[in-house]
Amino acid sequence: MKVTVFSGSHKGREGNTLLMVEEFLKGVEEAGAETENIILAEKDIRHCMGKFECWLKTPGKCIIRDDMDDLLPRFMASDIVVFACPVYFENVPSIMKNFIDRLAPVLLPHFEEDETGEYRHAKRYEKYPKFVVISNAGLPGQTNFEVIRLFFRRLTRTFHTELIAEIYRGEGEIFRGKKNIMLKPLIGKYNKLLRSAGKDVVENQALSEKTVKDLEKPIVPPSLYIKFGNEEWDRLVNESQEEDK
């Protein structure tokens, strides 16, 4: 089994979502799957021009020559694709949306009615990878993921596949405190859950209700997270202002 992560943070390898991905992939590998983590910030991916050449002039292939020439086959060769990204102003970052827009060639231009009575583009291929979503937000709470949750569920329908797991983590900046003596065991407990989730995705193609519930529990009380978060922002603002003097 091949599990490919497309990591869509503008911070590249410095983002908090990547810390989640690394633990998740440990579980995936423990279950025996082959893994690859592609950092979209390191790739040359131009914007879709919306001219439909991939459906008309060069069916199934974009006319833009950039790193999508390599990434599109990797996407289709995967059994499971993980979309990993932070929340930016209630939605996916532009780098992730740009990548998703460029997946258009794997579909046909023709319209069809799905089993719910809605319409979508038809399949170009018989089989598409199953989807997993991993997302991280700086603010606490699951409501931060309402837009992303709906977006990826709709995207799954568009690509004729299944969304087999969703992992949404508020309090994202807490991962930066992994060396803190008080936070270290709490983060370690959550990382263990991520590894378990990775194994479940490979072995069961799903997460149990208990695993989902445990993954969504606050790591620290939200009020405490907000208090220390605001104190840290005050420190950073003051530090920045001092540098400008």
UniProtKB/TrEMBL annotation:
<dbReference type="InterPro" id="IPR005025">
    <property type="entry name" value="FMN_Rdtase-like_dom"/>
</dbReference>
<dbReference type="Pfam" id="PF03358">
    <property type="entry name" value="FMN_red"/>
</dbReference>
<keyword id="KW-0288">FMN</keyword>
<protein>
    <submittedName>
        <fullName>Iron-sulfur flavoprotein</fullName>
    </submittedName>
</protein>
<dbReference type="GO" id="GO:0016491">
    <property type="term" value="F:oxidoreductase activity"/>
</dbReference>
<comment type="similarity">
    <text>Belongs to the SsuE family. Isf subfamily.</text>
</comment>
<dbReference type="InterPro" id="IPR051796">
    <property type="entry name" value="ISF_SsuE-like"/>
</dbReference>
<keyword id="KW-0285">Flavoprotein</keyword>
<dbReference type="InterPro" id="IPR029039">
    <property type="entry name" value="Flavoprotein-like_sf"/>
</dbReference>
<feature type="domain" description="NADPH-dependent FMN reductase-like">
    <location>
        <begin position="1"/>
        <end position="104"/>
    </location>
</feature>
